[in-house]
UniProtKB/TrEMBL annotation:
Protein's name in the database: FAD-binding PCMH-type domain-containing protein
Membrane-crossing segments per the record: none
Gene Ontology CC: mitochondrion
Record has Kinase as a keyword: no
FAD-binding PCMH-type domain ranges (all copies): 90-269
One MF term in the entry's GO annotations: FAD binding
Keywords of this entry: FAD, Flavoprotein, Oxidoreductase
PANTHER family per the UniProt record, alphabetical: D-2-HYDROXYGLUTARATE DEHYDROGENASE, MITOCHONDRIAL
UniProt key word Secreted: no
Needed cofactors: FAD
Cited Pfam families: FAD-oxidase_C, FAD_binding_4
Length: 373
């Protein structure tokens, strides 16, 4: 009975801690809503919220004490790449970029900005297409580029613990040395960061097999809007204890807190892979091809991506390393399909069955199967 009483008391303490964390999250959410009130679309003019202060020289000096002068960027030329997205569509006017290395430094920065009423925008690889990682006005940019340390990998469970600023491709190559892969693949994998992938709830071409990144996140470390550190960096796959707080931050895009570290469940690399690009004459045929792929490939279907004809022609025109999958004719839609599994003969036979069925009922009108990597 004593043990039961102690267990009940411990659970009550945990519940109260989680309750206070949720209250802080809700407080930050209300601030975000107030900050964007009146915004009706991307074309709307967003007026600067007068509740927030501008950064002055005293603030810059304070930041330099926290993370070192070499990690506080104020040079106008250096600021340009941080103040605009990679497409050059969105432009901010921040006068300072902060580049912390550890979660404690992020805490110190956020706490200071919270007390001084200085707006902050977190920035990862800055590969987004909607301007979410660049300032609207003169917010402080908190770059995670230096938080690029991979802390550990467990070969038994396939779980990697990493800082949020690690580039996706670097992380994938790291776990690849152990025969695993990150269950996420994006065109921007050479520059996007795993923290940003989680913050934007990225899907990628492998979502058809592994689902979105939410399902692979086992634990998370987050700095809340007032500088509080929420440390839930668990590595247990089967964990049904308490609230699933990490899911609150998946897809939150930095509005509820700044992700500083993650534990990710990786998947085993397949021993065999087959890739095909098939051309379709209508979007209805693309949809039908997806159903055929699920039917003939089953659990071996590991990636599927549709490309419209205009995008393919633009790539062929501007990217010298891209080859035309169907050089003899142009089509309105192209579908990339990947099958993977443990047995090469089995995977090859399944892909052959899919392409044969697709051509037989004219779901696909052209295509090719990759002969090498």
């Amino acid at each position: 009975s004593v043990l039961v009483s102690v267990w009940i008391w411990v659970e009550r303490v945990r519940m109260m801690q989680r309750y206070h964390v949720l209250k802080r999250i809700e407080s930050v959410r209300r601030d975000v809503v107030r900050g964007v009130r009146g915004l009706t679309g991307l074309a709307a003019v967003v007026e600067r919220n007068t509740r927030f202060q501008s950064v002055d020289d005293v603030d810059v000096a304070g930041f330099e004490k926290m993370i070192g002068a070499q990690n506080v960027v104020t040079d106008s030329d250096e600021l340009k790449s941080y103040n605009e997205d990679w497409m050059g569509k969105y432009h901010g006017h921040s006068r300072v970029v902060l580049r912390p290395k550890e979660a404690k430094e992020v805490q110190d920065i956020v706490k200071y900005c919270h007390e001084k009423r200085i707006a902050v925008v977190p920035q990862g690889g800055n590969t987004g297409l909607v301007g979410g990682s660049v300032p609207v006005h003169d917010e402080v940019i908190l770059s995670l580029n230096r938080m690029d340390r991979i802390d550990s990998f467990d070969e038994m469970s396939g779980v990697v613990v990493t800082q949020a600023g690690v580039v996706l491709e670097k992380l994938d190559n790291y776990v690849g040395e152990y025969g695993y892969r990150v269950p996420l693949d994006l065109g921007a994998k050479g520059s996007c960061q795993i923290g940003g992938n989680v913050a934007t709830h990225a899907g990628g071409s492998r979502v058809v097999r592994f689902g979105s990144i939410r399902g692979a996140v086992l634990g998370m470390q987050v700095v809340l809007g007032d500088g509080t550190l929420l440390d839930s960096l668990k590595t247990l796959r089967k964990d049904n204890t308490g609230y699933d707080l990490k899911s609150v931050f998946v897809g939150s895009e930095g509005t509820l807190g700044i992700i500083t570290a993650l534990s990710i469940a990786c998947v085993r690399k397949a021993a065999a892979e087959q890739v095909a690009v098939l051309a379709c004459d209508s979007f209805a045929s693309v949809q039908k091809l997806l159903l055929l792929a699920r039917k003939h490939l089953g659990e071996q279907l590991s990636a599927l991506e549709m490309m419209d004809g205009h995008a393919v022609q633009l790539a062929l025109k501007n990217l010298s390393y891209v080859r035309d999958p169907c050089p003899d004719s142009q089509h309105p839609f192209y579908v990339l399909i990947e099958a993977s599994g443990a047995n090469e003969d089995h995977v090859t036979a399944q892909m052959d069955a899919l392409t044969e069925a697709a051509f037989e009922d004219e779901t696909a009108v052209n295509g090719t199967i990759a002969q090498d990597e």
